[in-house]
Each structure stands twice: as structure tokens, then as C-alpha cells.
Specification:
Elements: H1 3-7, H2 11-23, E1 37-40, E2 43-46, H3 51-60, E3 64-67, H4 75-86, E4 91-93, H5 104-114, E5 121-124, H6 131-142, H7 148-151, H8 168-183, H9 188-194, H10 198-209
Parallel strand pairs: 2-5, 3-4, 3-5
Antiparallel strand pairs: 1-2
């Protein structure tokens, strides 16, 4: 939905979006909880923002929002897009998996966007725990030059990420990269381009979970 269509939304359409966000996307859990944290200077992570939180982003002077849930007709995304448009905040979207690994092209496209993102900005998924955690780790590795051992703290109980759940496959990706770097130093982009094996990592995680 483009900016014009968003701004033409009727009261009924906005009400339906709010209803969908709360009943289907569990927005009521996020009324007083944001899971926000500044992971690097001018780089924030969060859960799915409500319109009120988008307004807070504007007050903070954030210059962009990076949505890791992809574009959809869900109430949460519609309300986020509407409020971001009202405040002139660009909203970029990547559809990443939380319980499964994404194709290499999606991760590489994320790195491409990182290199163009204006600071300060915020990245988010639904709960700010899993996809936001992996993207935050990617940022610290790719943009800040941190080793995997330090970047993996982005995926912890501090942010409600549980390695022992199905989302642990995202930890498996970082484990695979760390194992490769231990033998042969390589940038995250080069590893994703030439060595990332989605099926092998998924199979290894499934085997380890048994």
C-alpha cells in the first residue's frame, strides 16, 4: 500500500487494522513492552512497533525503519506504514524467516541495505527476539567489525531468544560461520556468497535437536 492509499484510509479501515493487530498479531502484548535496545551508536532493535512507538521513533529523530517481517496486509504492518508515512520516516522491508533459514540472496540483500542505512535507525521483527537478533548480529559483524563471539550476544534470553526452540536454527547459521572463520578468516558477505549451505545447517540443527 503506497503513501496515498495509506493516507486515504477510512476510520473503519483503521479500526479494522487495529483490531487485526491486537487479535491476530498479539499487539496487546507490546503495549508497554518494546524490547528496544541500542546495539551500536545510532542503531536500535525493537519488536513490532505500534503507532505510538513509531511516534516515539520520530521524536528520537530516527531516520529509517527496517522491518524484517516483510510487507503484508496485516494490521500491524498497515498501521506502522501509515504512522511512518505521516512522520516522513522511510520504511524498508525484508521478509526473513524466524524458524527457518532464508535464502542467501535475502541475507546478502540485508547487508546491502545495511551499507545504505542512515543513522539513527531501528530494525525490528515481531517480538524483537529472533530475526532482529540475527540481523543485529549481522550488523555488528558486517558493519562494526565485531567477531562472531561478541555478536552472538544479540541472540540471548536478554532479548527473549531461546536457542533450544525452533528459532535455534538461526544460532546454527552463526555457528556455521564461526566454525568456518576459525579455520579460514572470511567476511560475512563472502561466506554467505560462497559457503552458506542452508540445507546442511538446517539438517545439522535438526539432528542436534534429537
Amino acid at each position: 500500500m503506497n503513501a496515498d492509499a495509506l493516507n486515504r484510509m477510512t476510520f473503519g479501515q483503521r479500526f479494522a487494522a487495529h483490531l487485526h493487530a491486537h487479535l491476530r498479531d498479539h499487539a496487546y502484548f507490546r503495549v508497554f513492552w518494546t524490547n528496544m535496545d541500542e546495539i551500536a551508536p545510532g542503531v536500535w532493535r525493537s519488536n513490532q512497533p505500534s503507532p505510538a512507538l513509531v511516534r516515539r521513533y520520530a521524536q528520537m529523530g530516527l531516520k529509517a525503519i527496517l522491518n524484517l517481517r516483510g510487507t503484508s496486509s496485516s494490521g500491524s504492518h498497515t498501521l506502522e506504514a501509515l504512522e511512518a508515512s505521516r512522520h516522513g520516516i522511510p520504511l524498508l522491508s525484508h521478509a526473513l524467516g524466524s524458524r527457518s533459514l532464508s535464502p542467501r540472496e535475502k541475507y546478502i540483500a540485508l547487508l546491502d541495505d545495511f551499507e545504505q542505512m542512515p543513522r539513527p535507525f531501528v530494525l525490528h521483527c515481531k517480538s524483537g527476539a529472533d530475526r532482529a537478533g540475527l540481523a543485529s548480529a549481522f550488523w555488528l559483524i558486517h558493519m562494526e567489525g565485531l567477531p562472531v563471539t561478541e555478536a552472538r550476544r544479540m541472540m540471548s534470553l536478554r532479548y527473549l531468544h531461546v536457542r533450544g526452540s525452533k528459532t535455534g536454527v538461526l544460532d546454527g547459521l552463526l555457528d556455521a560461520y564461526a566454525a568456518h572463520v576459525a579455520k579460514q578468516p572470511l567476511s560475512l558477505r563472502d561466506w554467505l556468497t560462497h559457503h552458506y549451505d542452508r540445507e546442511a545447517i538446517t539438517a545439522a540443527c535438526a539432528k542436534g535437536a534429537k
